[in-house]
Amino acid sequence: xxxxxxxxxxxxxxxxxxxxxxxxxxxxxxxxxxxxxxxxxxxxxxxxxxxxxxxxxxxxxxxxxxxxxxxxxxxxxxxxxxxxxxxxxxxxxxxxxxxxxxxxxxxxxxxxxxxxxxxxxxxxxxxxxxxxxxxxxxxxxxxxxxxxxxxxxxxxxxxxxxxxxxxxxxxxxxx
Length: 175
Prior knowledge:
Largest sheet: none
Strand content: under 5%
Number of strands: 0
Helix content: over 70%
Distance between the termini: 24 Å
Order of helices and strands: HHHH
Low-confidence stretches: none
Shape: elongated
């Protein structure tokens, strides 16, 4: 099961990376177009900030599953580095349970927001693309993040019950 969630998480991270790359290229072209100030028919890309807004939001949610499954979120262990392995497992379980709950709430709220934007027909200001498209893209990332987080939290609960780690060694900042 871990391998399945790890694969999905990596695919999402690749999609997030592709999105950021496309946004960088678009931003560079838009800036170059502004610099040319109408020479050769060039100009800024209309609605570039609208596309960056939606694209970066998707990329953030696309990277979350990989961060969660590899334990790569930023951590500060000043107060916890001297905990026993059992206490450390219990603390990590609590953190992962809370993280899973928050991501489930975010996914549910994004779904509700997407439905609201879909019903209202709201579009972006300049290029007039439907706002619900951005919500839908983010909801996919948030939904996968929530499922991965629930899986990780469940594995942490089993780790605490069994008294041993049931997940591969995490790759956080302290290793």
